[in-house]
Amino acid sequence: MLKKFFSKKSKTNPVAPPNPLFDLFPLSETNRQRITTFVKEMFERMFDEENIRQMTNFTLEYPVGTGKVAKLLFDDMGWQQEQKEGELVLVCKQTGGYFHATAIQVQNKLKHGQTTLPVYRQWLTKQYIDFGGGVVLCEHFSNINGVEGFESISKIPKPDSAQGVDYIYFLNIPNFKDNILYQISIKMFEQGTKGLRDNLLMRPLMDIAEMTNSEEFMKHYFRDPYDHTNRQGLPMNVSEKEVFDHLYPFHPLSIIRQVIRKRLMDSLKWES
């Protein structure tokens, strides 16, 4: 999956109409506090004191480790290693998350600027739409060690009609000198009560946007972050914005953005 993409002329995205939910951002301090208070009050109604303490103080104290695939080095965060032929597989004991890393020898010559970010986004979005999912983030990155490529956060529905979604942090890293494409894919799963993040944010967002019709609310609740006219698959929803990560530190999306992504961005480097 996701082993190659093709350069093609990108389409110009039409301008989307205003969105009463996404247009609330960046949140005012008043609205931010209003949402925080609501979520905390709902936690108090739904869970006992010990569960609330565990959820709100959730942390993952990963040790610093060294992972390697061919010439690419990175922090493996002490995940348990399961070596497979041609790829490195790591498993997180605390969350059950999977970390796959592989190096692909490309037949055609890799070239700088061969694929632009808009083209890559279109290609990636199509891959996840085919799985019934969608893209939360897709950007170019370049870290302090001179490693660059494309990074993305996407989601796919859980298999076999199970509730919830799985989140995937995916890195596509070309090594132009050796003509090798490195790919890292980290999948994290929802634990405990599924859908808690978006269910608890719907009510305050609906009130702040002064919306009373639930059907109208849901029409605006989902929006592709790059193509606002896209309605296929499962586009990003407003509860998945990073501003809400601190309310749900145990959520897989929060773990990817606030822990895993930062650890990888700081540690990715080429072997000397």
As a percent range, the share of strand residues is: 15-25%
Give the mean pLDDT: 90
Specify the number of helices: 6
User: How does the major sheet shape up?
Assistant: 7 strands, antiparallel
What is the third-level CATH name, the topology of the largest domain? Protein Transport Mog1p, Chain A
**What is the helix content?**
25-40%
Shape: globular
In angstroms, what is the radius of gyration?
A: 20 Å
Could you list the spans in which at least 5 consecutive residues all have pLDDT below 50? 1-10
Looking at the overall shape, the CATH architecture of the largest domain is 3-Layer(aba) Sandwich
CATH superfamily of the largest domain: Mog1/PsbP, alpha/beta/alpha sandwich
Strand order of the largest sheet: 3-4-5-9-8-7-6
Let me know the number of strands: 10
Overall number of structural domains: 2
What's the CATH class of the largest domain, please? Alpha Beta
Structural class: alpha+beta
The helix-strand sequence is: HHEEEEEHEEEEHHHE
Quote the distance from N terminus to C terminus.
30 Å
Describe the structure.
The chain folds into 2 domains: 22-57 and 193-247, no CATH class; 67-191 and 251-270, Mog1/PsbP, alpha/beta/alpha sandwich (Protein Transport Mog1p, Chain A). It has helices at 29-46, 49-56, 117-130, 196-208, 214-221, 252-267; strands spanning 67-69, 72-74, 80-84, 87-91, 98-105, 134-142, 148-157, 165-175, 180-189, 269-270. The longest helix is centred in the N-terminal third of the chain and has 18 residues, at 29-46. The model is unreliable at 1-10 (pLDDT under 50). The chain is 28% helix and 24% strand. It contains 6 helices and 10 strands.
